[in-house]
Prior knowledge:
Layout: E1 2-8, H1 13-22, E2 29-35, E3 45-46, E4 49-50, E5 56-65, H2 67-81, E6 90-95
Antiparallel strand pairs: 1-5, 1-6, 2-5, 3-4
Helix pairs in contact: 1-2
The chain binds adenosine-5'-triphosphate and magnesium ion.
Amino acid sequence: MVKIECIIRLGQLEPVKDALGSYGIHGMTVSQVMGCGLQKGRTEVYRGTEYNITLLPKVKIEIVVTDKFAEQVIDVISKTARTGEIGDGKIFTTRVDDVLRIRTGEKGEDAL
Ligand SMILES: Nc1ncnc2c1ncn2[C@@H]1O[C@H](COP(=O)(O)OP(=O)(O)OP(=O)(O)O)[C@@H](O)[C@H]1O
Ligand SMILES: [Mg+2]
């Protein structure tokens, strides 16, 4: 299993969620985060204002999927979240050893 952690623009959350839903992906964790990348948060425009600060509001989506779905999920997120402007975000992928569904005790891929 793989954890796909993506940091995207706030405005891209709904389209990305919809795209994931149409792929049958329903389990996800979404957080509001602050972050910066190469530009150190300085040159990006957020809601029409040029922020002279080092952190900008972003959305983080975490999804754990089976290995065979990972590539498709990464592909759909990157295509949906891309505007081509700086600050589109990043996708980090890490391996996940195990998952436990607390209600049933199921483990591994059965618990996703
Ligand atoms: N190396 C990193 N480690 C952790 N989080 C990061 C890293 N780079 C970017 N992020 C997160 O992703 C968000 C968006 O990054 P961003 O898209 O600006 O990356 P970038 O490398 O500056 O690329 P671009 O030039 O397209 O803006 C940041 O606000 C931050 O939350
Ligand atoms: Mg950047």
